[in-house]
Amino acid sequence: MMKLAPYPEYKDSGQPFLGDIPVHWNLFRNGRLFSQRNETGFGELPILEVSLKTGVRVRDMENLKRKQVMADREKYKRAAQGDIAYNMMRMWQGAVGVAPVDGLVSPAYVVVRPFPEVDCRYFSYLFRTASYMNEVDAYSRGIVKDRNRLYWQDFKRMPSPVPSIEEQRHITSFLDAVGSKAQRFIRNKRRLIGLLKEQKQNVINQAVTRGLDPKIKFKPSGVEWIGDIPEHWDATKLKRVVSFNPSKSETRANPADEEKVVFLPMENISVNGDIDCSEKRTLSEVWNGFNYFRRGDVVVAKITPCFENGKGAYLKGLESDFGFGTTELIVLRPSKAIDGAFLRFLTSTKQFLLLGEQYMTGAAGQQRIPSDFVKNYPIGLPPIDEQLEILEHIQEKSAEIDQAISRAQREIELMREYRTRLISDVVTGHVDVRGIEVPEIAEDELLALEEDTADADDEIDDEGDMDETD
């Protein structure tokens, strides 16, 4: 972490959200820095989108998470390379950025072109700071807060701190360089986390399929892909030690009762086997149309991609005696021959998930694992006391790995917090970076940086991508 000093002299900006700014900086309203671009009829240009993490980028039409019906492209607005585009309803969240190429944005977006003494990348950094986004919220208008919009007429009235064009460019280069270093750090930590997760999975796979004693004698399991198992283990199938999808009639509950029980939608079940029991529903709401389970059962996601990701859980910690959940679960009830936690680990091994993927049926995007695959899945089953020893071993080894994962995740959080604070301090003039020599960053490195930032949990703000007009 570098130590930065403030500017030698400051003046009052007159704006509470900015406070003091360097004495040689100006304070201009955005109307003196940008003009509105409202050009249509360029249907041949690529579609752009605004990401809350990475700004404006070209939309990948082939790999959209959800397909959208495109309105008449001739009505979409042109954003020239270097323009700033923002979503009127989401700029207060950071849905703003610089167009990387000539492209099209929804009619619900605002496009502004810079005047000559403006470096749009500096202002893109500024507009995405927490203090500026709060100011955007204050200038936005609407009937209800979550539908407020920042129209061009209001955007152009907003004040912005303005250093010279040379200083804007230097600030931008400095922040790009810092961002590049920060993202390399984050990328390496993510790789470490991936390796640690793989190590944890290997610990589980080895323990539940081969046991803990490497010197023990083995015997053929009779299943080629399982290979040998300890000779005192039973070669069996899940259906012989597990019952499937038990009946809710065993509860003897009144379906019209207003008693509340835990409800588990898929998003409340993690790939790590954790469950979020915060959602409760009355029996009358869930008695029909949902899957029933009770405390101590094991649930396995059956739909893609949840199955392949290993979503499932041992419901030892269910907060009600029984509950209901999404129909995209297979419910397994362990017999006395198999511990519930051991069963959960068996159904999260690489072998189980990879083989199950081959048996999935249904249309693309809606494929499911057949119950018969799970029922007939062959396993090597140790005695119950050995299962408990294996579980203790997995818990001990997993705890060490989980601590290392948590440390790496915390280091990522701290790096992100540092970078966010540094951006805010630099673009508002709280610290002076003029004397810092900045290495040049190749354009392809910046593009790789943005792609790496847009990870799986990236939130794309595409509200208003349909044909909304004002």
TrEMBL record:
GO terms for biological process: DNA restriction-modification system. The keyword Hydrolase applies. Signal peptide: none annotated. GO terms for molecular function: DNA binding; type I site-specific deoxyribonuclease activity. Its EC number is 3.1.21.3. It holds the Pfam family Methylase_S. Residues 447-470 are annotated as: Disordered. Keywords: DNA-binding, Hydrolase, Restriction system. Gene3D superfamilies: Bipartite methylase S protein, DNA methylase specificity domains. Residues 230-399 form the Type I restriction modification DNA specificity domain. InterPro entries: Restrct_endonuc_typeI_TRD, Restrct_endonuc_typeI_TRD_sf, Type-I_RE_S_subunit. Belongs to the type-I restriction system S methylase family. PANTHER family: TYPE I RESTRICTION ENZYME ECOKI SPECIFICITY SUBUNIT (PTHR43140:SF1), TYPE-1 RESTRICTION ENZYME ECOKI SPECIFICITY PROTEIN (PTHR43140). This is Type I restriction enzyme S subunit. It comes from Desulfoprunum benzoelyticum.
